[in-house]
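Second attempt. The first submission of Putative addiction module component had a stray character pasted in from the spreadsheet, which I only caught after the job came back as garbage. Lesson logged: always re-copy from the clean sequence file. Corrected sequence (78 aa) follows.
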Amino acid sequence: MNAAAKKLVEEALALPPDQREELIYVLSDSLGGPEISLAWREEIERRLEKFSRGEAKLQDAETLFARLEAKYANDARG
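This time the job returned cleanly.
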């Protein structure tokens, strides 16, 4: 990601949740891919609201993947 894109992300994250949600839809539509289903829109909204209230427990991807890898490695052993 170049500097301009990083700046856009930083600015987008500073927006209120409802404006970030609208931005998600605009960007998604611009890719020409399948439209986000209503169920996913509702889930995105639910998660954004939970995050905004400080109720979401966030983890970085590296930590999450390590935890999942360890879990499934243990499951594979029986």
